[in-house]
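Hi R.,

As promised on Friday, here is the backbone we talked about, encoded as structure tokens. Could you run it through your design pipeline when you get a chance and send me back a sequence?
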């Protein structure tokens, strides 16, 4: 893994829980965060210009102000420089249409936000799997 994980989430409690999860995994990865898709695109634009590292993985919620995770996914997949970055949707939404739309747009992983220690461990294993797919 060469770049950071870009974590896109607007809920402070979810951010705190995920940062604990990342630490517990012992990833050693730098975590960059954005509060919505617009902030994530700003980060990705800077990375495209070489001002910061491209992320090794993007993890985004679906429902966020200004721009949600599905639109962010669509924009990432439309950009040849970003298209190879593994993308995980991490959401509280159980809406089957959201899952279908994410699959249509080329998501690598679609997960419900964990609510138990076992679910966090499973999420951690999935994050490690996706990081193995990250471009060097």
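Update: got your reply. Pasting your designed sequence below so it's all in one thread:
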């Amino acid at each position: 893994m060469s770049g950071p994980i870009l974590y896109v989430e607007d809920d402070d409690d979810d951010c705190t829980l995920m940062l604990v999860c990342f630490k517990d995994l012992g990833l050693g990865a730098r975590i960059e965060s954005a509060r919505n898709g617009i902030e994530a695109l700003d980060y990705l634009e800077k990375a495209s210009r070489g001002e910061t590292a491209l992320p090794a993985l993007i993890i985004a919620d679906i429902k966020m102000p200004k721009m949600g995770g599905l639109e962010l996914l669509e924009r990432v997949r439309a950009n040849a420089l970003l298209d190879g970055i593994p993308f995980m949707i991490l959401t509280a939404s159980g809406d089957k249409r959201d899952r279908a739309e994410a699959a249509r747009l080329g998501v690598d992983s679609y997960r419900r936000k964990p609510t138990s220690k076992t679910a966090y461990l499973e999420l951690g294993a999935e994050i490690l799997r996706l990081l193995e797919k990250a471009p060097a």
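One thing I noticed while checking it: The longest helix spans residues 117-133.

Thanks again,
M.
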